[in-house]
C-alpha cells in the first residue's frame, strides 16, 4: 500500500481511535446539538420578564421520557465506496466470531448500566443492539476504525468493552433524540406559560370577573363595557355567540367585525378593520392592543380539548381591561392564575334574574307535553324518535342538535320562539346550553346519562355533572323570554330524585387549565428530529412536557388522527401542522375522505377551485328524502366549512371562498327544509328499512335513566315495558342496521337462523318434558 494511501487512512481513522477509556463512562461527551440558546431560527416562546431562563429550566431533567415513543431510524453505512480499508490493514472478519462477540457485549451488565446513563433504557438498549448487530453482520464494508477494533477483539488484542463507543455512535444515529434530550426538554417545558406573551406582560391589565349562574346578566354587563370602549374584542366559545355580539354591536352603532375560523366579515366595505371585533376564542389576537376584552364561559378553561384557547386568551390578550364571564366555581382559580402575572382580580357577583324551580312530578308521557316545553336528549337517535312520536300526536316540534349548521339552528330557534307559529315544542341536545336565545318554560330531561370523552381520549357513559345540569336547566324561564319563571323536571319518574340530587350538589371548583403545544415549539422539535413523523413529534413532546399543578396538556388525539391520515402525503411541516389543526368531525367518513383529498391536491400545488369542490360534493344537491340523506348533507356542509377554514390559512390554494360560501348558504336552506320535514324523513327511513324492523326505535319505554352500571343504556326493564324478547331483538337489529354493522339481508338471515334454533329448542324441551312425564308415570305404577 502506498505512503499516500496510508497517510489518508490514518487521517480518517485517527480521530476515531484516539485514546478513549471506554470503561470510564464520563469519557463520552455529547456535542452534536450544541447550546440550545444559540438557536435563532425560531422565536423563543419562553422569553419574558417574569422568570429567568435558568429559573424556568432548573428542574427540566427530572422527568424520564416515555421511550416506547422513540422510533428507530434506518441508517446506511458511512463508508460504502468499495475500498475495504479495515480489511486491507488487518484481515477479513469471520461473521460467526463477530456474532459471538456481539452477543457477549449485549450480555455485559456494565455496558447496559453505562448506556442507561446516556439515555438508553432497557427497551432502547435492546432495539439499538439489534440494529447494531444487523449493521455489523450485513453491511458490505465496515468503517475502518470499527473493523480494526473488531479484529483486535477477535485476535485477543482488545477488550469487548471497546465496542461501546461505536455502539453508542450507532444508537445515537438511529435514536437522534438521545443526543439532544436536554434541548427537547427545554422546548417542551410548559411550566410558565405566562411568559409566552411578552406584549401582555408589558402592560398592567385590570381583570374583572363577572360571576353568576345562567341568566344572571353577567355577560350583559361585560358587553355594555365592551360597547362603551374605544376598542374591544369579544371572545366566545361558539360561532353563534360571536355572530350575536357582532349583530348587537353594529345595531348599537358600534362598528364591529366578525372573525371565526371559517368567516371574516368587515363592516368597512374596503376591508379596513374596525376597532371592535367579535370572534371565536381560538381566533383572538394576542398581539393587537385593545381597551376592553371580554372572555365568555371561562369555565371551559378546563375543557380537555379546547381549554388551551381560554388559557391563551386569559394570559395573552393585550387589553387594559379583561372582563371574564363564567361560573363562580372558577373565581379562585382565575385569581390564583392572575397572581402569577402580578395582576389583581375584581369580582362582581350576579344572581339569577328570574326564578327556576324543580317540579315534584315527572312528565312520564309525551301526552303530557305543554307549549314551551323542551325535551333534552343526549343522542341524535333519541331526537329522531321523540320528534316522530310528538308529531304522531298532532303536535309540531322544532329540532336542534350539535351537527346542524348554525343557520339551521337559528331557523329552528326562531320557529320555536315565534308566538304565531304552531310549533310549541322543542326537542334538542345539550347544544341549547349556549349560543341560542330560546323561550322555554319547562326543561324536561329525557335521560341523565351522556357520552363523554375522558382525559385519555376514551369514550364513556356518565351521569351528567352538576355544572352541565345547571347550564341546561338554566335555559328555562330566561329573563328576556315570554316565560318569566322556569321549571325543570324529567321524562321518567325514577330520574327525578336523581336530578334533584345532582342539582343540589355544589359545583366542583375548577383548579386546572389546558395548554397545547404551538407550531413554533413543534418546529423546534422537528429541527432536532427531522426524520420523525408529526404524530411521533407530538407524542414525544407530550411525553417530555412539564407542567405545574395549575395546568394540563389538552387531549391531542384528533390532531394525531389527522396527522396519521396524511402522513404519506408530502407536505412541509408548517402546512402539515395547519392541516392537522383543522376542526373536522372524524366520525364522518365523507368528511375524512374529503380532508384527505384536500391535502393531496394541496401537495401537488394545484389550487382547489370552485369547480373541483363542486365535483367533490356532487353539487348541486337535492333535498333529503330520508334521514341518511340528511346526515350526508350535514357532512357536506362540514366539508364546505373545512374549505373555508383552510381558505384563510392558504388563500392562494383555496381561491374560491366566496363561491363556496354561496353554495354553503344554499345547502343550509336545503338542510333547513329537511329538518322542518324531519318526521316525513323518519317515516321514509322506516319504509325503506327491513319490513317489521323499526330503524329508529331508540326511545326508551317508561323507566329510570340507566345510571346503574348493570343497566344497558336505552334498554328497558322487562317488567316496566312489557316488551317481548322478539321485539327487543328487532330493536337491537334495527340499531345494528342503522349503524352499518349489519346489512338488512344479513339481519334477515340471522332472524331465520334464530327462529330455526328457537323452534329446535322448543322441540327439545317438549321431548325432555315428555320423557320426564313417562318416567314419573312409570314410577307411580311401580
UniProtKB/TrEMBL annotation:
Molecular function GO terms recorded: ATP binding; hydrolase activity; RNA helicase activity
EC number(s) from the headed UniProt entry: 3.6.4.13
Name of this protein: ATP-dependent RNA helicase SUPV3L1, mitochondrial
GO cellular component labels: mitochondrial degradosome; mitochondrial nucleoid
Keywords: ATP-binding, Helicase, Hydrolase, Mitochondrion, Mitochondrion nucleoid, Nucleotide-binding, Transit peptide
Domain Helicase C-terminal: 358-523
Annotated catalysed reactions: ATP + H2O = ADP + phosphate + H(+)
CDD domains: DEXQc_Suv3, SF2_C_suv3
Family membership: Belongs to the helicase family.
Coiled-coil features, chain-numbered ranges: none
GO biological process, any: mitochondrial RNA 3'-end processing
InterPro entries, sorted: DEXQc_SUV3 (IPR055206), Helicase_C-like (IPR001650), P-loop_NTPase (IPR027417), RNA-DNA_Helicase (IPR050699), SUV3_C (IPR022192), Suv3_C_1 (IPR041082), Suv3_DEXQc (IPR044774), Suv3_N (IPR041453)
Organism: Oncorhynchus tshawytscha
Major localization listed first in the record, in broad terms: mitochondrion
Compartments where found: Mitochondrion matrix, Mitochondrion nucleoid
Cofactor field: Mn(2+); Mg(2+)
Gene that encodes it: SUPV3L1
Pfam families: DEXQc_Suv3, Helicase_C, SUV3_C, Suv3_C_1, Suv3_N
Amino acid at each position: 500500500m502506498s505512503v499516500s494511501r496510508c497517510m489518508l487512512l490514518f487521517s480518517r481513522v485517527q480521530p476515531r481511535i484516539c485514546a478513549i477509556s471506554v470503561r470510564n463512562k464520563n469519557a463520552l461527551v455529547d456535542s452534536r446539538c450544541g447550546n440550545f440558546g444559540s438557536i435563532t431560527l425560531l422565536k423563543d416562546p419562553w422569553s419574558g420578564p417574569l422568570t429567568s431562563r435558568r429559573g424556568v429550566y432548573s428542574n427540566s431533567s427530572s422527568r424520564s421520557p416515555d421511550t416506547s415513543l422513540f422510533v428507530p431510524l434506518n441508517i446506511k453505512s458511512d463508508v460504502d465506496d468499495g475500498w475495504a480499508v479495515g480489511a486491507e490493514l488487518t484481515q477479513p472478519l469471520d461473521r460467526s466470531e463477530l456474532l459471538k462477540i456481539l452477543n457477549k457485549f449485549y450480555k455485559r451488565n456494565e455496558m447496559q448500566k453505562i448506556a442507561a446513563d446516556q439515555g438508553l433504557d432497557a427497551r432502547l438498549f435492546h432495539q439499538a443492539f439489534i440494529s447494531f448487530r444487523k449493521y455489523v453482520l450485513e453491511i458490505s464494508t465496515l468503517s475502518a476504525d470499527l473493523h480494526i477494533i473488531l479484529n483486535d477483539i477477535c485476535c485477543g488484542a482488545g477488550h469487548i468493552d471497546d465496542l461501546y463507543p461505536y455502539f453508542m455512535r450507532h444508537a445515537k444515529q438511529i435514536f437522534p433524540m438521545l443526543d439532544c434530550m436536554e434541548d427537547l426538554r427545554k422546548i417542551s417545558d410548559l411550566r410558565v406559560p405566562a411568559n409566552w406573551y411578552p406584549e401582555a406582560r408589558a402592560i398592567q391589565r385590570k381583570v374583572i370577573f363577572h360571576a353568576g349562574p345562567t341568566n344572571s346578566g353577567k355577560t350583559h354587563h361585560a358587553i355594555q363595557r365592551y360597547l362603551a370602549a374605544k376598542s374591544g374584542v369579544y371572545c366566545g366559545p361558539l360561532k353563534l355567540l360571536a355572530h350575536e355580539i357582532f349583530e348587537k354591536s353594529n345595531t348599537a352603532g358600534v362598528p364591529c367585525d366578525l372573525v371565526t375560523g371559517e368567516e371574516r366579515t368587515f363592516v368597512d366595505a374596503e376591508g379596513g378593520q374596525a376597532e371592535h371585533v367579535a370572534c371565536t376564542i381560538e381566533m383572538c389576537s394576542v398581539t393587537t392592543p385593545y381597551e376592553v376584552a371580554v372572555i365568555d364561559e371561562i369555565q371551559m378553561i378546563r375543557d380537555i380539548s379546547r381549554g388551551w384557547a381560554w388559557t391563551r386568551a386569559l394570559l395573552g390578550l393585550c387589553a387594559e381591561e379583561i372582563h371574564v364571564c363564567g361560573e363562580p366555581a372558577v373565581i379562585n382559580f382565575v385569581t390564583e392564575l392572575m397572581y402569577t402575572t402580578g395582576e389583581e382580580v375584581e369580582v362582581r357577583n350576579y344572581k339569577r334574574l328570574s326564578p327556576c324551580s324543580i317540579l315534584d312530578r315527572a312528565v312520564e308521557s309525551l301526552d303530557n307535553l305543554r307549549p314551551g316545553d323542551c325535551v333534552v336528549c343526549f343522542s341524535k337517535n333519541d331526537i329522531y324518535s321523540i320528534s316522530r312520536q310528538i308529531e304522531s300526536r298532532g303536535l309540531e316540534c322544532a329540532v336542534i342538535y350539535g351537527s346542524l349548521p348554525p343557520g339551521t339552528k337559528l331557523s329552528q330557534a326562531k320557529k320555536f320562539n315565534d308566538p304565531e307559529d304552531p310549533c310549541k315544542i322543542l326537542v334538542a341536545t345539550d347544544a341549547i346550553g349556549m349560543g341560542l336565545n330560546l323561550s322555554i318554560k319547562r326543561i324536561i330531561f329525557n335521560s341523565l346519562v351522556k357520552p363523554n370523552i375522558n382525559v385519555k381520549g376514551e369514550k364513556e357513559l356518565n351521569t351528567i355533572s352538576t355544572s352541565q345540569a345547571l347550564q341546561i336547566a338554566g335555559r328555562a324561564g330566561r329573563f328576556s323570554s315570554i316565560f318569566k319563571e322556569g321549571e325543570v323536571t324529567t321524562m321518567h319518574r325514577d330520574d327525578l330524585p336523581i336530578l334533584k340530587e345532582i342539582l343540589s350538589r355544589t359545583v366542583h371548583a375548577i383548579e386546572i387549565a389546558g395548554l397545547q403545544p404551538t407550531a413554533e415549539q413543534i418546529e423546534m422539535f422537528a429541527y432536532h428530529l427531522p426524520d420523525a413523523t408529526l404524530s411521533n413529534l407530538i407524542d414525544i413532546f407530550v411525553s417530555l412536557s412539564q407542567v405545574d399543578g395549575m395546568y394540563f396538556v389538552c387531549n391531542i388525539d384528533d390532531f394525531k388522527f389527522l396527522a396519521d391520515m396524511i402522513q404519506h402525503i408530502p407536505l412541509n411541516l408548517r402546512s402539515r401542522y395547519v392541516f392537522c389543526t383543522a376542526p373536522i368531525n372524524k366520525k364522518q367518513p365523507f368528511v375524512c375522505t374529503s380532508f384527505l383529498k384536500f391535502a393531496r391536491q394541496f401537495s401537488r400545488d394545484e389550487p382547489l377551485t370552485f369547480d373541483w369542490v363542486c365535483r367533490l360534493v356532487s353539487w348541486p344537491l337535492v333535498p333529503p328524502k330520508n334521514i341518511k340523506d340528511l346526515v350526508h348533507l350535514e357532512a357536506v356542509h362540514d366539508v364546505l366549512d373545512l374549505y373555508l377554514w383552510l381558505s384563510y390559512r392558504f388563500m392562494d390554494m383555496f381561491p374560491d371562498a366566496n363561491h363556496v360560501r354561496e353554495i354553503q348558504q344554499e345547502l343550509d336552506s336545503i338542510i333547513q327544509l329537511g329538518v322542518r320535514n324531519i318526521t316525513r324523513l323518519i317515516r321514509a327511513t322506516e319504509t325503506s328499512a327491513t319490513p317489521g324492523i323499526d330503524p329508529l326505535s331508540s326511545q326508551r319505554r317508561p323507566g329510570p335513566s340507566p345510571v346503574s352500571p348493570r343497566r344497558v343504556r336505552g334498554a328497558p326493564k322487562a317488567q316496566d315495558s312489557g316488551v317481548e324478547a322478539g321485539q327487543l331483538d328487532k330493536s337491537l337489529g334495527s340499531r345494528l342496521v342503522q349503524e352499518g354493522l349489519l346489512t338488512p339481508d344479513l339481519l334477515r338471515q340471522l332472524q331465520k337462523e334464530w327462529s330455526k334454533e328457537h323452534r329446535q329448542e322448543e322441540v327439545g324441551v317438549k321431548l325432555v318434558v315428555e320423557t320426564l312425564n313417562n318416567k314419573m308415570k312409570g314410577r307411580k305404577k311401580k
